[in-house]
Design goal:
Strand order of the largest sheet: 6-7-8-3-9-10
Largest sheet: 6 strands, mixed
Distance between the termini: 41 Å
């Protein structure tokens, strides 16, 4: 589905990621972990057309996305939930969700997808007429997830979906991510809660200093002593 080959990118200054390669297959969850500043978010932003590409390829079904505008990337079925639960605070929940379908014109299908979002997040249906600024952090994250689903994406990019949330809400968000994946949407996720992310990921990549460090099945990396000690804070006994 998505293949990144030897990607180097930045923001007009120093190179942030260098020769990064990864793959996301149909209907799977893939996670990137690593220390702060490793370039994980830059990979997601590069896919979505928000960085300066210095080299490499980003292939979606063998089409190179490099050079496309963000709107064109979205139109090809890629949704993006940036870090920090970016909602439109002055808009209601429902208005926020409709913003996710701004490039679509198929009104009947939009209504159907709205029903799908509400089925996944019943709390949003209860609060659909409330201003988004009045929601809790967890509810705002659900709005951000729901809004991305209004594009009916085949691939969803998630940047730190659990950041700043209480443990109980984190568990709920991860449960929703798995539900979305089971419904057929592939997910590429950056996540600070590495232990929980690796548990639900089919495969994972570890980035360090902007480069690939390790890769493998999520649960294999979770049990790898090098990963546990360096990235999960688990010391050898």
């Amino acid at each position: 589905m998505l293949i990144i080959k030897n990607l180097s990118a930045g923001y007009g200054g120093p190179t942030i990621i260098e020769n990064v390669s990864l793959e996301v297959r149909e209907g799977e969850i893939v996670t990137m972990i690593g220390p702060n500043g490793a370039g994980k978010s830059t990979v997601l932003k590069s896919i979505f057309g928000l960085t300066e590409i210095e080299g490499g390829e980003i292939l979606l079904h063998n089409e190179n996305l490099i050079g496309l505008k963000t709107s064109a990337v979205s139109a090809r079925g890629i949704g993006y939930v940036p870090q920090g639960r970016s909602v439109f605070p002055s808009l209601t929940v429902e208005e926020n969700l409709f913003m996710g379908a701004y490039i679509r014109s198929d009104k009947n299908k939009i209504a159907k997808d709205m029903e799908y979002v509400y089925s996944k997040f019943p709390r949003l249906h209860e609060r659909r007429k409330q201003k988004s600024r009045l929601l809790s952090g967890g509810e705002q994250q659900m709005v951000a997830l729901g809004r991305s689903l209004m594009l009916h994406p085949q691939l969803l990019l998630l940047d730190e979906p659990s950041i700043g949330l209480a443990p109980k809400i984190v568990a709920e968000v991860f449960e929703k991510i798995q539900e979305i994946q089971r419904d057929g949407t592939a997910i590429l996720m950056v996540e600070q809660n590495a232990s929980m992310a690796l548990q639900i990921s089919q495969r994972a990549y570890v980035l360090e200093l902007g480069k690939n460090k390790f890769e493998g099945p999520g649960k294999e990396l979770l049990s790898d002593e090098r990963i546990r000690e360096a990235y999960l804070g688990v010391r050898k006994k």
